[in-house]
Amino acid sequence: SAAMLFYEHLAGEGFEAMQTRFGIDLPTRGLRFDFVGTLQPDQLFDMTVTVGELRTRSYDVSVDARRPDGDPVFSAILSPICVARDRREGVPIPESLRELLANWTRL
Questions:
Q1: 73, 36 in Cβ contact below 8 A?
Q2: Percent of the chain beyond pLDDT 70?
Q3: With 80 as the cut, is the pLDDT of residue 71 above it?
């Protein structure tokens, strides 16, 4: 998925390795799609991934998809929440992860 590729680029390692390094899991708290166009099977499109709002325990990853001609196809927002692995409760975003995410916020 675009989010998994984004995390690999963000952290320089796979998603599972990144979660292990930070001592957290990142289950999805919310997911929203808004389709404004259609695609044919196997039709190419471009996606731009950015970080939206950074909250205490959760944040938004925004995905905007466009056809090569620039026409929009969809926008999506994935909202993961940081959960402690040992007690399965929400915890603040680790500061080092927050810094990585802040580099990708929309201006």
A1: yes
A2: 99
A3: yes
Cα→Cα distances 24→58, 63, 97, Å? 12, 23, 11
Alpha carbons within 13 A on the beta-carbon side of 47: 17
Q: Check if the beta carbon of residue 45 is closer than 8 Å to that of residue 73.
A: yes
| 1, pLDDT greater than 90 | no
What distance, in Å, lies between the first and last C-alpha atoms of the chain? 24
| pTM for this model (two decimals) | 0.90
Are the CB atoms for 25 and 16 separated by under 8 Å? no
Q: Give the torsion through C-alpha atoms of 54, 57, 47, 33, to 10 deg.
A: -110
- Do residues 91 and 82 make contact, with C-beta atoms less than 8 angstroms apart? yes
Average pLDDT taken over every residue of the chain: 94
Phi, psi of 70 (to 5 degrees): 95, -10
3-state SS record for 29-41: EEEEEEECCCCCC
